[in-house]
Structure formats: structure tokens, C-alpha cells
Amino acid sequence: MKISTKVEFGIVALADIAIYSVNGETVSSSDISSRQNISQKYLEQILVALRQAGFIRGQKGSRGGYTLARPASEISFSEILNGLDNNILADTYVSEDDTDGGLRDKVNSCIWDKLNGYMREFTAKMTLADFIELHKSESEENDGSFMYYI
Amino acid sequence: MKISTKVEFGIVALADIAIYSVNGETVSSSDISSRQNISQKYLEQILVALRQAGFIRGQKGSRGGYTLARPASEISFSEILNGLDNNILADTYVSEDDTDGGLRDKVNSCIWDKLNGYMREFTAKMTLADFIELHKSESEENDGSFMYYI
DNA sequence: CAAAAAGCCTATTGACATACTAGGAAATAA
DNA sequence: TTATTTCCTAGTATGTCAATAGGCTTTTTG
């Protein structure tokens, strides 16, 4: 399954902000850009989307940047996915003309909508904090001073 | 999640062939086209793909058409999906340059590949015969003479 | 044998989405 | 006031999707 860079970078950016915005410090797009190796201009667009979706707060001006708008433990992946991509967790839309009770309807209702249900279930359970915890515990170069904001 | 018409029509075509090719009779693309309301020319391309993937056999010439190459109970949805779309069940590919052990890797390995695993699990269990049975049992206009090949 | 019926193959096209690049306006802190 | 940063808009190259179209090949049938 193909994952768009917009979603991928969006998640990475959120995690980066969660990890590095300790003590209310802001994280700038150039910080994230260099740390995560993402084009800054492209990243900025994604950050705007994340702000509009209510996940982060932006602080303009010198020494500005981003902080999480909510604790990472209260941001689920299903919310993030819906905020960045209004297709990936959506059920298949069948136009009224095609609802003929035939095989096409059944494929959509029995296969795809069911798969979407599984995806929603899994992504609803997992939070940004879970993901960061997973990343932290599996990272071997962890020197003990690894800090993150939950 | 978006489903391509190629995959959707491919499944419908397979089901249609399974249902209507009783006693070794063939099912022509024009039969499927009119029954399922799919452009015949487009359908033909999909049928070629289904034949090349080994799901159906084509019989050329007058009175020709298609039959299943294997029993519907031995055709899983994961096989069909892989035959029609080499992306939908595939794990995210990460180029060697990007395997830096950072957050991007983790997003792919912990989220997407896991989701793919669930999808593969579900689609591997379900067969074409299961789907047809489901369709048959839920179709209210069933008059008892409904026949299909398993 | 000829003609019709079917599968089979390839090329082309319009629409749309993706993944950026680019330029600059607005706000804010130093 | 100047540097820094977010924020907004436009453009663009590339690729995929969903067909449409034309015609060749094979096989049955009259």
C-alpha cells in the first residue's frame, strides 16, 4: 500500500515536535527539516495543514516555531490520517446510480469497507505517544538523556 | 481508502464468471459487460490481466469466452489483489539512502507495514467462493434457482 | 471456404493527484 | 528596524487512472 509523503512527513514532523519541544520550547520548520531530512518548503505546507487540523500551534516571528496543541497521548493516528488525507480512511463512495444491489455494491461493502474498519480500529488505538515510545525503546543509540514531551 | 476500478471490476468479473460458467460453459466479455454494466473494451483489458495471472482461461473464437482456471474456493482475495495491483498489499519500500534508523523508518515499519499485515491476513482468508456465498445469501430476490460454480 | 464471433494486443488521451519548487506577505522578537 | 519565522498562493513536472479506440488473431459455424 502506497503511503504519501505528505502523511509520512506529517507524522514525522509531529513526532519531532513532540520530542524536541521540551519545556514549552518551540520547534522551527528548519529544525525539523534538517533533523529529518525533509525539504523545508514542502514541510511548511504540511505544518500548516497540521495546524489547521488542530494538532500544533504556530508561533510567528523570531524564535518562533511550533508546539503541540494537545498532549501526544491524546493524538491518535486515525485523527492524524484524517487530518492529512481525507481519503485513506474513508469508505468507498458508491453513487446512487450504481447502488443496484449487484456485485459491485457487494465488493465495496463486504471487502473494502471491512478493510477500512480494521484500519480505523488499529489507527484509533495508537497514539502519537505510543509511537514515540516505540521509537525511543527500539533506538539503540539511546544514551539515557533522550527526552520527549508527553 | 480508494479502490481502483480495475481491482473492483476484476473481482466482479471473476465472480460473474464463477456464477455463470455452469457445466463448463464459457462467459464472454460482452455477457459480463452487459450484466455488470462495465465498458466492454475496458473490461477486456482487465480480463487479460486476470488470465495472465492464472485465474481464468480464455477460449477464442465463436462461442468462446472465459472459465475459471481453478475452483473459486481456491482463489483468495490476496491473490486477486496482487494479480491486479502490485501496490495495494505491498510493504512500503524504503531506499537504502533513507534507512537511517530515524523516524521515517519507524513510521513505515511500525504503522504501514503493520497495517499491510492486517490487510494481507484478512484478504488471504477470504476466497472468491466465500464472497459469492455472501452475495447469494444476502440477495433477497433469490428465487431458489440461483446457481454458481464452486 | 468464408464469415462471424470472440479473445488478444497496443496506442492514445483527458483528467486528476502527487510532490515538490518558488516567491513573497505578515507577524514577531531582538 | 531588521532578522527571523510562520503563512499563503501559484506554478510545474511527473505519474497514474480510467477509459477509448483500432485492429489483429484464433476458432466455430454455416
Automatic annotation (TrEMBL), chains A, B:
Q: Name one GO cellular component term.
A: cytosol
Q: What is this protein called?
A: Transcriptional regulator, Rrf2 family
- Do you know which SUPFAM superfamilies this protein is assigned to? Winged helix' DNA-binding domain
Any Pfam family hit: Rrf2
Picking any one GO molecular function of the record gives: DNA-binding transcription factor activity
Q: Looking at the keywords, is Manganese present?
A: no
Per UniProt, the keywords (alphabetical) are: DNA-binding
Q: From which source organism is this entry?
A: Ruminococcus albus 8
Tree of life domain: Bacteria
PROSITE patterns the record matches? HTH_RRF2_2
Using the record for this protein, list the coiled-coil segments as residue ranges, or answer none. none
